[in-house]
Automatic annotation (TrEMBL):
Taxonomic lineage of the native organism: Eukaryota, Viridiplantae, Streptophyta, Embryophyta, Tracheophyta
Protein source organism: Triticum urartu
Highest taxon listed in the record's lineage: Eukaryota
Subcellular location(s) per record: Endoplasmic reticulum membrane
Cysteines joined through disulfide linkages: C103-C138
Assigned keywords, A-Z: Calcium, Chaperone, Disulfide bond, Endoplasmic reticulum, Glycoprotein, Lectin, Membrane, Metal-binding, Repeat, Signal, Transmembrane, Transmembrane helix
Disordered as annotated region, ranges: 212-301
Bilayer disposition of the protein: Single-pass type I membrane protein
Protein name per UniProt: Calnexin-like protein
Family (UniProt): Belongs to the calreticulin family.
Length: 503
């Protein structure tokens, strides 16, 4: 009987253990107000106001960045530190950039344990963290950061190690979920919306900058290049002499004495004349505005003549020109190569089987941004990938799907009411540039006419594009194989647009 009870207890214990393992280590859904749970930094520089607000179009709440051009800082201390060393750990959170992200951060800092006496109100940019993860975009920066701060066991110094190939930030205003999976075999995987975008190994020098494990040797900082070290591979030939007939003063160009003035040159005609159609403005005051002069225009007589004005013989290349003489280069007999300091053992080198992660004792958001409307939600730490996947599917996926459907409907409505989509606008911009190609000049007016008609009928964009391509191919064909210049009338019928080429 006792044996049966023991088995039953073991089964129950195993069941509870399994249930416990399926729970997140930490999950902040922001269903309730964050007041009292999250601590806003008391530092003077952080003037941004955090709000408990609904995501646009949803009943779901999140932590909102409410003002543009501000610094923000808020922190949540965990009940128990999360240990990263031996098991899989998943870091995950949602961000919605409701007003876009032109310049600013939307990342999270996973804070390591602080010194005794530290107060959450003191949270700021200098607060030490273990991992920084999430979107950052400004200027040339457009990446989903993953930064590990790791302690060098030889020096005791913490070094920032940046993932070399982070994914880019999605460029829209939809909800997105960012996931970092840290594996006990030193692998880290970065997912955006559940799709793997980057994979790396913590101990690979190819994946992190700088590498977690320093190089075994370093250049000797005390080694100096000898004064007689010659790095010149080539030198001027010391025995070469300038040839006697080398004239360094000969000009590059000389007057072409054999040139003759073209027949029909108009010596007495200026290149520009007063515009005969210009008239002095009625309100022109000679005393205040000065003497009025008609604007100049190109002399039409010069357009049909070889030239106007005083004719001068043109210049031509001087066959005697040689320029400055330089001795030819020869191999340097004293060349020793490019000097480098000798390598010495690196005093900071250490060996490592796996990163010595500091625990996560708190979660902090410390950002500067030019945009408001950034909404954080469902911040999660789990020791099981399935838990993170489950939370992602239940919390993020329905919102994302709804936002995508709404976006499609808005784009369709905009296309019906406003005419052209962004893609169509780009197509027509390209077609206008095509119409400016010189060999299409005889047909430019008619092509532009067709394009303008197409802009009022977005449903025929592809037909317009195909029609212009037909024109280009036909013109090229006739240019290559002969034939009369084509006449290019156009017609717009009820179902499509085409350009009819007559032979």
């Amino acid at each position: 009987m006792m044996g049966g009870r023991a088995v039953l207890l073991l089964v129950i214990s195993a069941l509870f253990a399994q249930i416990g393992a399926s729970d997140p280590l930490f999950h902040e859904s922001f269903n309730e107000s964050f007041d009292g749970s999250w601590i806003v930094s008391g530092k003077e520089e952080y003037k941004g106001v955090w709000k408990h607000a609904k995501s646009d179009g949803h009943e779901d709440y999140g932590l909102l960045v409410s003002e543009p051009a501000r610094k923000y800082a808020i922190i949540k201390e965990l009940d128990h530190p999360v240990i990263l060393k031996d098991e899989t750990v998943v870091l995950q959170f949602e961000v919605r950039l409701q007003n876009g992200l032109e310049c600013g951060g939307a990342y999270i800092k996973y804070i390591r344990p602080q010194a005794t006496g530290w107060n959450a109100k003191d949270f700021d940019n200098d607060t030490p963290y273990t991992i920084m993860f999430g979107p950052d975009k400004c200027g040339s920066t457009n990446k989903v950061h993953f930064i590990l701060k790791h302690k060098n066991p030889k020096t005791g110094k913490y070094v920032e190690h940046h993932l070399k190939s982070p994914p880019s930030v999605p460029y829209d205003k939809l909800s997105h979920v960012y996931t970092a999976i840290l594996k006990p075999d030193n692998e880290v995987r970065i997912l955006v919306d559940g799709v793997e975008k980057s994979k790396a190994n913590f101990l690979s020098a190819d994946d992190f900058e700088p590498a977690l494990i320093p190089s075994k040797t370093i250049p000797d900082p005390d080694d100096k290049k000898p004064e007689d070290w010659d790095e010149r591979a080539k030198i001027p030939d010391p025995v070469a002499v300038k040839p006697d007939d080398w004239d360094e003063d000969a000009p590059m160009e000389i007057v072409d004495e054999e040139a003759t003035k073209p027949e029909g040159w108009l010596d007495d005609e200026p290149e520009e004349i007063d515009d005969p159609e210009a008239a002095k403005p009625e309100d022109w005051d000679d005393e205040e505005d000065g003497e009025w002069e008609a604007p100049k225009m190109d002399n039409p007589k010069c357009e049909v003549a070889p030239g106007c004005g005083e004719w001068k013989k043109p210049m031509k290349d001087n066959p005697a020109y040689k320029g400055k003489w330089h001795a030819p280069l020869i191999d340097n007999p004293n060349y020793k190569g490019i000097w480098k300091p000798q390598e010495i053992p690196n005093p900071e080198y250490f060996e490592l089987d796996k990163p010595d992660f500091d625990p996560i004792a708190a979660i902090g958001i410390e950002i500067w941004t030019m945009q408001d409307g950034i909404l954080f939600d469902n911040i999660l730490i789990a020791d099981n990938e399935k838990v993170a996947t489950s939370v992602r599917e239940k919390t993020w996926k329905p919102k994302f799907d709804a936002e995508k459907e709404k976006q499609k409907a808005e784009e369709a409505a905009a296309g019906a009411s406003e005419g052209l989509s962004e893609i169509q606008k780009k197509i027509f911009d390209i077609l206008y540039k095509v119409a400016d190609i010189p060999f299409l000049e005889p047909y430019k007016t008619k092509i532009i006419d067709v394009i303008e008609k197409g802009e009022t009928q977005p449903n025929i964009t592809i037909s317009i594009l195909a029609s212009v391509i037909v024109v280009i191919v036909t013109v090229l064909f006739r240019a290559l194989f002969g034939g009369k210049k084509p006449v290019v009338p156009y017609s717009l019928d009820t179902c499509h647009c085409c350009i009819l080429l007559k032979t």
